[in-house]
């Protein structure tokens, strides 16, 4: 019986720590999230777009302005593109999150980029995480092809 009680206590403790909210540091110059990276040799979003027109993918750094951050827990961000669209940046294995005050900041992300078709279900999921209304979510009826990055790290550069 003692062993069962100890095992239960250990399991409950593990669950508590596993689901505990991580403290996310506010976005200030030099702060990084995920893997520690530097800002050297980063492509601009426009350079990434041009590269992906002729190549299947890109691994490296990309610099851009953050347009949105997931409102639920900071589980993704989007980078501004010149055409008004955005680049979706998700985080490797959801291993880290970013704060809401990252919106409007210049960042460098390091990871893997590619052109990807996003399904209607995922577009609706992202819209919900962004805080879209039920009406806005209902208007999503077609998949979208866009640039997607899976980032190992994010560095705030200003």
From TrEMBL:
Keywords: Signal
Top-level taxon of the source organism: Bacteria
Pfam family, one: DUF4920
Entry keyword Signal: yes
Secretion signal span: 1-22
Name of the protein in question: Uncharacterized protein DUF4920
């Amino acid at each position: 019986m003692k062993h069962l009680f100890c095992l239960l206590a250990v399991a409950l403790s593990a669950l508590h720590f596993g689901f505990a909210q991580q403290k996310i540091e506010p976005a200030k110059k030099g702060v990084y999230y995920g893997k520690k990276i530097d800002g050297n040799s980063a492509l601009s979003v426009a350079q990434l777009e041009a590269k992906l027109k002729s190549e299947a993918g890109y691994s490296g750094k990309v610099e851009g302005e953050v347009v949105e951050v997931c409102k639920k827990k900071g589980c993704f961000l989007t980078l501004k593109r010149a055409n008004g669209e955005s680049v979706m940046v998700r985080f490797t294995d959801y291993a880290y999150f970013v704060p809401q005050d990252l919106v409007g900041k210049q960042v460098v992300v390091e990871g893997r980029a590619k052109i990807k078709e996003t399904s209607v279900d995922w577009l609706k999921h992202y819209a919900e995480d962004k805080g879209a209304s039920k009406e806005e979510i209902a208007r999503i009826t077609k998949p979208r092809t866009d640039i997607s990055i899976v980032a190992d790290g994010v560095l705030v550069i200003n």
